[in-house]
Amino acid sequence: MTEQELVEGCIREDRICQRELWNRYSKKIMSLCLRYCNSQEEAEDALMEAYVKIYDNLAKFRFQSSLETWMRRVAVNLCINKIRARKHIWTSITDDEYRLGYADDAFEDLQVNQIMKMVEALPVGYRTVFNMYAIEGYSHKEIAEMLGIDEGTSRSQFAKARKVLQQQIQKSEGGSLAS
């Protein structure tokens, strides 16, 4: 079934198409929600809310990107709105602090699941900006606008996340990470 047939079927409320949409994309969207949420339960709630928004807004999808890209955007925006509601998570540091260097090759020897565990353990502000910048590809300006924070705060949250991850990597190099 093509994306267009799938979308048209979901708009008609065809249960087979709705199940197919879930089967094709729910694992990927759940993975995205887990990166932004504080717990499995919160991620599951975000996934369900994202799918409600997706089904409600499928008629607005214009096929200018892939369906998956559009769905990811809906889910990211939903997670960001949940995070934005918790304004106390943002801290700021000076420009000098976020310019701390790191070894670009520091991540090379780690498994993806090890890195994701490290990212999941970051404080929510650090994790959110890290995900948006390093994984989703947003600029600090876009992140600042989406989260309602200063661009400098976005940069500092990313720098702090990077520093914490670098420290965790250095610790893991001394021992082994449990998978």
Q: What is the count of DSSP helices, taking H or I runs of 4+ residues?
A: 9
User: Radius of gyration, Cα only, in angstroms?
Assistant: 18 Å
Helix content: 55-70%
CATH architecture of the largest domain: Orthogonal Bundle
Main beta sheet, described? Answer: none
Average of per-residue pLDDT values: 81
Ends apart, CA distance between termini:
37 Å
CATH fold type of the largest domain: Arc Repressor Mutant, subunit A
What is the element string, with H for helices and E for strands? Answer: HHHHHHHHH
Considering the protein shown, what is the CATH homologous superfamily of the largest domain?
Winged helix-like DNA-binding domain superfamily/Winged helix DNA-binding domain
Oligomeric description of these chains:
single chain
CATH class of the largest domain: Mainly Alpha
Shape: elongated
Counting structural domains, the number is 2
Number of strands: 0
What does this molecule look like?
With 179 residues, this protein is mainly alpha-helical. The chain folds into 2 domains: 3-85, Orthogonal Bundle (Rna Polymerase Sigma Factor, Chain: A); 88-174, Winged helix-like DNA-binding domain superfamily/Winged helix DNA-binding domain (Arc Repressor Mutant, subunit A, Orthogonal Bundle), CATH 1.10.10. The chain is built from 9 helices and no strands. The chain has helices spanning 3-11, 15-36, 40-57, 67-84, 95-98, 112-120, 124-135, 140-147, 151-174. Helix 3 packs across helix 4. The protein starts with a helix and ends in a 5-residue tail after the last helix. 32% of the residues are buried.
